[in-house]
Amino acid sequence: MIDLHYSATPNGQKVAIMLEEIGADYRVIPYDIFNGDQLTAEFGRINPNHKLPAIVDRAPVDGGDPVAVFESGAILQYLAEKSGRFLPASGAARASTLSWLTWQMAGLGPMGGQASHFLRYAPAGQDYAIERYTKEVARLLTVLEKRLEKSPYVAGDDYGIADMAIWPGRASAFVMGMGLDDWPATRGWFERIGQRPAVACAMAREDLKPPAKYLGRHQTLDETEWSNMFGDANRAAVQGD
Fold it and tell me: What would the pLDDT profile of 2-52 be if each residue is shown by its tens digit?
């Protein structure tokens, strides 16, 4: 059994997709990040950074104590190595998969997150930040498009954890007005992955769906929600651990 500590963000969705793909026995432990569920000391013992997702594997391969893993890229790699699926064991194919996984974790994911923050959450008057981050997301999406013009999947001929890492965030880019009309190779890839039974299941399960309050193009947070997401409560959780 794997416990999935989950919020329905792209980072959470990529792990849910992987768990469905490998047929894992897992249970979803939902968190309302606006409510600050992730800021408890109990969760801090699983992820000291107090961010979602995280997993606790209660049946690790070595048969030892439960294993906690945080950061979505690390979780994908852990599950791939445990299951023996979606990450080549060695050679150029493994290097390509890990390169594109890291590209998402270090580039597309953080830049998309910043663009989303300034477009959707920040007070008015953020024109420079919005332009800075949306242009960088567009540049990174062009990198993805050029890659997919040459390759059916991000890392090569086979679907893998790099695709799982990128796909949910590419879906969320629609909220920022970045659809697929200008990205034909990405459209084909996006639709192929969306048709996979495991992906369709992860996106349709009621306990994995995002609440409506996560989906608005422009979000208005009250003082408590802002503090939990971006302010004093968010910082205090780390200081109190």
Answer: 999 999 999 999 999 999 999 999 999 999 999 999 999 999 999 999 999
Tokens of 237: 């959780």
Helix (H) or strand (E) holding 28: strand 26-30
Helix, strand or coil, per DSSP, at residue 214: helix
Look at the block and give the residue holding tokens 């408890």: 40
By the 8 A CB rule, do 39 and 237 touch?
yes
Smallest CA-to-CA distance from 109 within 12, 231, 234 is with 12
Distance of alpha carbon 58 from alpha carbon 77, whole angstroms: 17
pLDDT for 240 beyond 70: yes
Q: Can you state the angle between helices 223-230 and 232-240, rounded to 10 degrees? A: 50
Q: Pick from 43, 35, 30: which is nearest to 4 by CA? A: 30
Whole-angstrom distance, CA of residue 142 vs CA of residue 152 = 16
pLDDT-based confidence at 176, cuts 50/70/90? low
Question: Which amino acid belongs to residue 130?
Answer: I
**Among 44, 45, 47, 55, which residue's Cα sits nearest to residue 12?**
55
Is the dihedral angle over the CA atoms 54, 59, 60, 66 positive or is it negative? positive
Candidates 112, 176, 118; CA nearest to 139 is: 112
Q: What is the mean pLDDT of residues 195-219?
A: 88
pTM for the whole structure: 0.95
Mean pLDDT within 178-196: 90
Of 135, 138, 156, 159, whose CA–CA distance to 147 is shortest?
A: 156
Q: Is 156 helix (H, G, I), strand (E, B) or coil?
A: strand
